[in-house]
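hiii so um. not sure if this is the right channel but i have a protein structure encoded as tokens and i wanna go backwards to a sequence. like what aa goes where. can anyone help
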């Protein structure tokens, strides 16, 4: 298997961080600090970074300011949300759940949903499929 790296951008000029490898250790506290100190966090209502991406699975670290909303959308595969900091409100057409730090939620593919940060929040979003 070939290792894959992200590319440097104007927002993340350091680049060259591995995002796929047969074995990959991810330092979540360091990445949380990174996305909360970037200009995008200071200028926008959110910031995110892909921490792992391979065929059939993507993991994205997402930080939302309080009251930031990810409008209703669907995902092509099953998702998992693990709240690391703060709290979010997760809405589907049938349910509305508050997900607090330390909680994990799963949702099957193609179900419409939205996310609202009830306070500053950080979560891991895993998309499979």
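sure thing!! here u go:
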């Amino acid at each position: 298997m070939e290792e894959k790296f992200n590319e440097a951008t104007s927002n993340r000029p350091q680049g060259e961080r591995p995002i796929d490898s047969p074995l990959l250790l991810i330092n979540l506290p360091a990445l949380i600090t990174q996305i909360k100190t970037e200009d995008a966090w200071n200028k926008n209502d959110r910031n995110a970074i892909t921490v792992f991406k391979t065929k059939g699975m993507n993991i994205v670290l997402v930080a939302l300011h309080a009251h930031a909303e990810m409008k209703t959308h669907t995902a092509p595969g099953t998702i998992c949300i693990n709240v690391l900091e703060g709290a979010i409100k997760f809405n589907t057409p049938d349910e509305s759940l508050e997900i607090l730090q330390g909680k994990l939620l799963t949702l099957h593919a193609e179900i419409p949903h939205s996310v609202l940060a009830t306070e500053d929040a950080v979560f891991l979003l895993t998309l499979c499929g």
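oh and The mean pLDDT is 92.
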